[in-house]
């Protein structure tokens, strides 16, 4: 078996992949924040990844994955999302907390266990938060928009809660309690540019979300779908 990348290296690759996939620049400063690490540790690790030809850093200081880095990141990300599905839908662990458990387990999966798990789960196309498994991006609807671009009165169905939001357990619990999970429908009650908030209403009650969270929630307009 080919020697596995260290856990730290895998973590960095997955985080860079996650930022780039959600259209955000992967910069050292973002990694410091997201990995809750010190700038010097992040810089040292990035130099290692660069030396091992897993990343390149462009003029704008944005980190890009090389083809080998991308391959490793995709493999780990696939394992992460499969494990989340298993924890949530098979073991019945709460939707809001599977991310951090998957985070611990994903590094220990051998390729054989990963394949058997995928078969056992029926080859899920996304994690329980709606993020597609690598290579399954076409599974997101073409007419998907982000919640901050919807207007008062729109009826929306949640498609995906961006992986970047999964890092906050309290926020995920709030979203789960308010039914802001894939497949559930909500009415946009208010959208206020001055306070930069969106208010949703559903059978789970009302929820006020700031734009910077709403922009990380993918939805489809169900009024349009049904008209
Ligand atoms: Zn996750
Ligand atoms: Zn997830």
Q: Can you put this structure into words, describing what you see?
A:
With 227 residues, this protein is α+β, with helices and mostly antiparallel strands. It folds into 3 domains: 7-69, Winged helix-like DNA-binding domain superfamily/Winged helix DNA-binding domain (Arc Repressor Mutant, subunit A); 76-137, Winged helix-like DNA-binding domain superfamily/Winged helix DNA-binding domain (Arc Repressor Mutant, subunit A), CATH 1.10.10.10; 145-226, SH3 type barrels (Roll), CATH 2.30.30. 42% of the residues lie in helices and 18% in strands. The chain contains 9 helices and 8 strands. The protein has helices at 7-21, 28-34, 39-51, 67-90, 98-105, 111-120, 169-177, 211-214, 222-226; strands at 55-57, 63-65, 145-146, 155-161, 185-192, 197-202, 205-210, 217-221. The strands form 2 sheets. Strands 3-8-4-5-6-7 form a 6-stranded antiparallel beta sheet. A hairpin with a 4-residue loop joins strand 5 (185-192) and strand 6. Helix 1 (7-21) crosses helix 4, helix 2 packs across helix 3 and helix 4 (67-90) packs across helix 5 (98-105). The mean pLDDT is 92. Bound molecules: zinc ion (2 copies). Residues 80, 84, 99, 102, 163, 166 line the site of one zinc ion.
């Amino acid at each position: 078996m080919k020697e596995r990348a260290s856990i730290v290296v895998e973590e960095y690759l997955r985080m860079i992949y996650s930022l780039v996939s959600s259209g955000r620049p992967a910069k050292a400063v973002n990694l410091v924040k997201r990995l809750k690490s010190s700038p010097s540790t992040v810089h040292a690790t990035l130099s290692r990844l660069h030396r091992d030809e897993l990343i390149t850093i462009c003029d704008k200081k944005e980190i890009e994955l090389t083809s080998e880095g991308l391959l490793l990141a995709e493999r780990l990300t696939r394992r992460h999302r499969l494990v989340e599905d298993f924890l949530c839908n098979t073991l019945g662990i709460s939707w809001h907390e599977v991310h951090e458990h998957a985070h611990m387990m994903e590094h220990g999966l051998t390729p054989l266990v990963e394949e058997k798990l995928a078969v056992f789960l029926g080859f899920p196309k996304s994690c329980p938060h709606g993020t597609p498994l690598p290579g399954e991006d076409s599974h997101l609807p073409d007419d998907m928009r982000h919640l901050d671009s919807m207007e008062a009165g729109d009826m929306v169905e949640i498609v995906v809660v961006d992986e970047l939001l999964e890092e906050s357990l309290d926020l995920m619990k709030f979203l789960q309690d308010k039914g802001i999970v894939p497949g559930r429908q909500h009415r946009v009650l208010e959208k206020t540019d001055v306070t930069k908030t969106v208010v949703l209403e559903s059978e789970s009650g009302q929820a006020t979300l700031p734009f910077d969270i709403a922009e990380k929630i993918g939805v489809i307009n169900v009024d349009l779908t049904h008209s």
